[in-house]
Amino acid sequence: MLDGADHFLSRQADAGYAADVLGPWAVRHVAPLRERTEPLPEGQVEVREASEGGLAQDIRVGPHWLRADEPLTLGGQDSGPTPYGLLAAALGACTSMTVRMYADRQGWPLTRVRVRLSHDKVHAKDGAECESRVGRVDRLERLVRLEGPLTEEQRAQLLRIADLCPVHRTLESKVDVRTRRDDSSTE
Known about the structure:
With 187 residues, the chain is of the alpha+beta class. It contains 5 helices and 5 strands. The chain folds into 2 domains: 62 residues, no CATH class; 90 residues, 2-Layer Sandwich (GMP Synthetase, Chain A, domain 3). The longest helix is centred in the middle third of the chain and has 24 residues. It is globular.
């Protein structure tokens, strides 16, 4: 029983709390395979179609499991973030961690970092830093909120540090993606 909540959990805060409490318990019954699978070695990720079919993907990173999917409007079931949502989440997490580590090393009074991101495809001519002026380019916009009694100089330095996070640097560099066929048996 959730104190003060109706039985439909019609308030978003009550529904979110119930999901946070029940989700970890329910996963034992919904996905028993997860408990029997050994964690992947550091640096490896495995993605496979979810058992329900469709576009949903189960993702394994070390001992962690994630789900990716597309929204209903694109043929998915909306059971997880989109691949671009996961990409933006990686950039946001890395940004926050990098800013936090730097502020802690400096002994600065940063109480919380919040990063909000959005992804869009824009016309190349709209991208000021774009080498190609033809077609569309991906744009990730990042809004960083630095909470705490920081000076303006500290805030400016932390924003400069945000641009040095490893995922940001990877996204701005030339990435070499190599695809090979895996002919190993799945049985």
